[in-house]
Design a protein that fits this description.
The complex is a heterodimer of chains A (about 120) and B (about 260). Chain A is mainly alpha-helical. Chain A contains five helices and two strands. Chain A has a two-stranded antiparallel ribbon with strand order 1-2. The chains are: A mainly alpha (about 120), B alpha+beta (about 260). At the A-B interface, α3 and β1 of A face β1 of B.
């Protein structure tokens, strides 16, 4: 192999640079963001774990149910009735977008465009 | 042990029967009580119709100011922005006879008709051309005849605008929020985002809670709203007793908005 030493050194440097983000973040521990839970309600429409992992699927289902099928009343697994609406039901309890939604979304690096149309409750400044 | 053909067939038959029964058994085991799986139902208060339609009495409702007040209410509850110029967004607006019924125009109209203004809105057609051309099915026709928009799916291609013979659709060329008073908007209804097409929705969100469309309520009797398929409904009564016309009959879209002249 011609110039073997140079090529291998170059490769090592390249791989090192490419994987730099992994090295830089090694060893640290991830702390879950502390979100503000609703003060006026104790029960969500589904168990906490389910909401944590699949609230996006639920919102996606809600969108189709309300708009396309015209079904606007949601009966949860516990038998309670809710109006299908992000703005009028979810945001009634989770009154702060910054303290509830944004905290996890910022941490996870996702920017859902829900708020381009849906109006979040007014934040007290 | 040697498997006999008889035994093999017996076993195969039993397994097949078992496979057929398995889903039923699983459903029986998991179901049972009423409060089981989360599901959605239609609101108890929802107003139902086989085909929603609107009749506008232009003998009573025909001035620019009167139609403007209806438009204001409609635009307020649906957070429609006020954008001046060619990029305006409108759900309910007004026009002259010639603008409203371009194919049914006479060369010497009566003075009364020449002065009249007509409220214009989405016609919620029987054969909506906008629905046919929408590539993402963001515009769709509901079972009750209302042509609705799913803004989540709209990609802003504006085929529907090109297809609509009534110009009932508006494109959001820019973020509408700077053109609204965000302190006074209707918090119960979303705004739209840049790059989607919007239009009148016959107030589906109000029908779902048992209320009539906002313009009907505000018109003090000049607009009738009801089920076209029901011979005893209010719209059918009004249609029976009056001479009505619809916009652009030649295009064959069969509008759901009728005008008493």
């Amino acid at each position: 192999m011609y110039n073997g030493g140079k090529i291998i050194t170059g490769l090592v440097i390249f791989i090192g640079l490419v994987s730099l983000p992994f090295w830089a973040n090694m060893g640290g521990s991830y702390e879950q963001p502390k979100i503000e839970l609703p003060k006026n309600s104790t029960e969500c429409i589904a168990p906490k774990e389910e909401m944590r992992t699949s609230h996006m699927q639920l919102l996606n289902d809600w969108r189709d149910m309300a708009l396309r099928e015209g079904k606007r009343t949601y009966i949860s697994a516990s038998g309670k009735e809710y109006t299908i609406s992000l703005q009028n039901t979810c945001m009634e309890c989770h009154t702060s977008k910054a303290e509830f939604c944004d905290k996890c979304h910022t941490d996870a690096g996702v920017t859902p465009y829900c708020w381009d149309c849906h109006v979040p409750p007014k934040e007290a400044k | 042990m040697k498997q006999s053909r008889r035994n093999f067939l017996k076993f195969a038959g039993l397994s097949a029967a078992g496979l057929c029964l398995a889903p039923t058994a699983a459903a029986l085991a998991s179901g049972g009580g009423g409060a089981g799986k989360a599901h959605a139902v239609v609101n108890a208060k929802t107003l139902h119709a086989k085909r929603w339609a609107m009749v506008v009495d232009t003998r009573k409702l025909n001035t620019e100011e009167a139609i403007e007040t209806l438009a204001e209410v409609c635009h307020h509850i649906h957070n429609v922005p006020t954008i001046p110029g060619k990029q305006e967004v409108k759900w309910l607006w007004e026009g002259t006879y010639a603008e409203t019924f371009p194919e049914q125009e006479n060369n010497f109209p009566s003075e009364d008709l020449e002065k009249r203004r007509f409220p214009l809105l989405c016609n919620h057609c029987e054969n909506p051309s906008c629905v046919r051309v929408c590539p993402t099915k963001a515009t769709f026709k509901r079972a009750d005849g209302i042509v609705a928009m799913d803004y989540h799916r709209c990609i802003g291609c504006r085929y529907c605008m090109a297809a609509c013979p009534y110009g009932s659709r508006s494109f959001n060329f820019m973020d509408p929020r700077p053109f609204m008073d965000m302190d006074k908007i209707n918090k119960k209804f979303p705004t739209r985002m840049r790059g989607v097409v919007e239009k009148c929705n016959f107030c589906v969100e109000r029908l779902a809670i048992g209320e009539m469309p906002a313009c009907v309520e505000k018109s003090s009797g000049a607009i009738t709203f009801g089920d076209l398929q029901d011979p005893d409904s209010s719209v059918r009564k009004v249609l029976r007793e009056n001479f009505t016309i619809r916009r652009k009959p030649a295009v064959g879209t069969e509008p759901g908005v009728y005008y008493i002249i």
